[in-house]
Amino acid sequence: MSDTVLYEASEGIAHITLNRPEVHNAQNPELLARLDECWTAAARDDSVKVILLRANGKNFSAGHDLSVKEDEKDVFASFDWETRGITGQYLWEQSHYFEYSRRWRNNPKPSIAAVQGACVAAGLMLCWPCDLIIAADNAWFSDPTIIMGIAGVEYHGHTWELGPRKAKQMLFTAERITAHDAEKLGMVNEVVALDELGEAALGMARKIAEQDLFSLMMAKRVVNQTMDTMGQPAALQAAFDIHEFQHTQCLARSAGKSAVLTRDVSKLKQNNTKG
Q1: Rounded CA gap, 162 and 267, in Å?
Q2: pLDDT per residue over 25-63, tens digit each?
Q3: What does the angle CA 240 – CA 73 – CA 274 come to, to the nearest 5 degrees?
Q4: DSSP secondary structure string, 178-216?
Q5: How is domain 5-273 classified at the architecture level of CATH?
Q6: Residue 146: enclosing H or E segment and its boundaries?
Q7: Strand partners, 13
Q8: Rounded to the nearest 5 degrees, what angle is found at the Cα of 140, between the Cα atoms of 135 and 146?
Q9: pLDDT-derived band of residue 88, with 50, 70 and 90 as boundaries?
Q10: CA 100 to CA 113: how far, in whole Å?
Q11: pTM (predicted TM-score)
């Protein structure tokens, strides 16, 4: 069993911990698959009332693992473009990125994300599906994918989490949003000192675990269904389709050469972990 994500359930709480601190919890397919297994296990365990998502190390998540080796042709080198093409890319990202995030959002049990340090690009796709977010005072959030010519990550929570004007600012400028600003915008529930993050998140989880499970599930359903009625699922799907269209633009821009994408990925990686 992969140790990229750790799982433990006790006292009504499922503890899910990202465990790739040496690469700032960057997400590779193995981590994402293991993470999805943990969410599913928590949903199926009748003793679990609340899910607590945390991360080992300095940063919550630096997003997708964008490591590019010298012998690789481009950022998608690990993907078999010759045989699968754009269609395969679309289906792969839909199942591994978009559907994972949407499935975690729709998990029937309440969830909390405890975020420290950097939460960048695809890192947002881990915390945004959670019902509550508690952030350390050193946490920051950004989506600098415009550097690669892409208007945001695969799961477009931006408008719903930040409001339209702040969402546009995040996407247009690639600027960071601090934990305190995120709290003012309503994206984060609480901001605490870094050394208090673990206890604050656990305290919230314990408080939720005191409640009746069915009541918790119905309370979550009420809020989620309200957002569904407002059109969130259709909006998320439309945004994902735009995201995938922009992959074709990136390929056309690179004209089969690695230089442009390699340069952009290098800039993005610096942005992701700096600070």
Answers
A1: 25
A2: 999 999 999 999 999 999 999 999 999 999 999 999 999
A3: 65
A4: EHHHHHHHTS-SEEE-GGGHHHHHHHHHHHHHTS-HHHH
A5: Alpha-Beta Complex (3.90)
A6: none
A7: 10, 50
A8: 140
A9: confident
A10: 16
A11: 0.88
